[in-house]
Amino acid sequence: MKTTDERKRAILESFKGGLIVSCQVQHDDPIYTDDIVVKMAEAAKWAGAVGIRANSPDQIKAIKDKVDLPMIGLYKIWHDDTDVFITPTIESAKQVWEAGAEIIALDCTSQITHEGTQAWDLIKELKKEIPEAIIFADVSTYEEARRAIDNGADIVAPTLYGYTKETQHIEEPDMREFAKMCRDFKDEAYVMMEGHIYTPEDAMKCIFLGAHSVVVGSAITRPHLTAKRFVDLLGGYQDNWRDAEKAKH
């Protein structure tokens, strides 16, 4: 059952049919400057985006101070012993919330975290600790989406499709599986598309298949990766640009 909380529903319904822009930068990215994420977010709002997705408390707060759009916040923390890096602990989720994000995104896959728990178990703990937060479940499969919803996620999206061991061989979004998510879960949660969307036409396909909204990052806000895709293709796929996209920071 979708949330009945009026404040949460107002935010979630404001996303309907729209574009959410992921405005993220790492310190070792060639485009990094202190205010780059704010400029990304300002450009997204100017273009008509309905929301922003951002990483780390500092960048979330910097954007929220300048751009009045709903925020999907996350905190990427990498460890060598796990592939779970998107808001992997309750402490990181609290920092995202305190920075001003209305929505907290976290890894909700079946993978084992640095702390030795299954990633999707954090949802229940988060709902107890911060019941006011809207929970955005980043998953990689239909089955993980099902579990995330059962655990109480408000939003599910195949953000991690291609980033888990089970799906790492995949480069393009699985539109058939995504359509199945939209069909089966539409009355229980807000199903959004995030991951591997590079053109407006592909984003529109997702809306047609039933997506509540679409999140796009690299194709809009990470020009070094866009350039890398071109170089990779022109070079005959000798240097896989996805290695750069998946790099730990």
Automatic annotation (TrEMBL):
Q: Which Pfam families has this protein been placed in?
A: NanE
What pathway does the annotation place this protein in? Amino-sugar metabolism; N-acetylneuraminate degradation; D-fructose 6-phosphate from N-acetylneuraminate: step 3/5
Instruction: Show the catalytic activity.
Output: an N-acyl-D-glucosamine 6-phosphate = an N-acyl-D-mannosamine 6-phosphate
What SUPFAM superfamilies would the database entry show? Ribulose-phoshate binding barrel (SSF51366)
Keyword Isomerase, does the record have it? Answer: yes
State the source organism's domain of life: Bacteria
Top class in the EC scheme: isomerase
Q: Identify the EC number(s).
A: 5.1.3.9
- GO molecular-function annotation terms? N-acylglucosamine-6-phosphate 2-epimerase activity
UniProt-listed Gene3D superfamilies: Aldolase class I (3.20.20.70)
UniProtKB keywords: Carbohydrate metabolism, Isomerase
What role does this protein play?
Converts N-acetylmannosamine-6-phosphate (ManNAc-6-P) to N-acetylglucosamine-6-phosphate (GlcNAc-6-P).
* Sequence similarity: Belongs to the NanE family.
Return the protein name.
Answer: N-acylglucosamine-6-phosphate 2-epimerase
